[in-house]
Design a protein that fits this description.
By secondary structure, this protein is mostly helical. It has 6 helices and no strands. The longest helix has 32 residues. The mean pLDDT is 76.
Length: 140
């Protein structure tokens, strides 16, 4: 109980110490009557530049390093032998050569089929609307 009495006494003493007296009020009123000070702030000149380069997250994971050259259609066939073999001596893989030859033959056959289909279409439908775009116009 004594602790509560001491705390209450301390609170009342602090509140009484903060009570304004006449001199403090007069000083505050005089300060409020003065005109407010003017604050002049000059805008600084910009002497810097900000450059923001936005990059996608993980973009560096998907970039091809500069020392890796992308494969081209004319690249040499890949040699895949574990020990020295004839293919390494001539610097070509026979399987890759055979694959290149068969892909070329298939591509040439497909092109010939398309040309033959266009010739057949043009001989049968040359006078129809829209055929000029495929057949090259009316016959001479």
């Amino acid at each position: 109980m004594a602790v509560y009495v001491i705390c209450a006494w301390a609170v009342y003493a602090l509140i009484g110490a903060q009570a304004p007296d006449e001199q403090a009020l007069a000083r505050i009123k005089a300060a409020l009557q003065k005109p407010r000070p003017t604050l002049v702030i000059e805008v600084p000149k910009t002497d810097f530049r900000v450059n923001i380069d936005a990059i996608r997250p993980f973009a560096d994971l998907f970039e091809v390093p500069p020392w890796v050259t992308p494969p081209s259609d004319l690249a040499a066939p890949h040699v895949n032998c574990a020990r020295p073999c004839v293919a390494q001596l001539v610097s070509a893989d026979p399987g890759a050569i055979a694959h290149s030859i068969s892909a070329g033959l298939r591509s040439r056959r497909a092109h010939e089929e398309v040309v033959q289909a266009m010739v057949e279409y043009c001989s049968a439908h040359r006078d129809e609307p829209g055929a000029a775009g495929i057949c090259g116009g009316p016959p001479p």
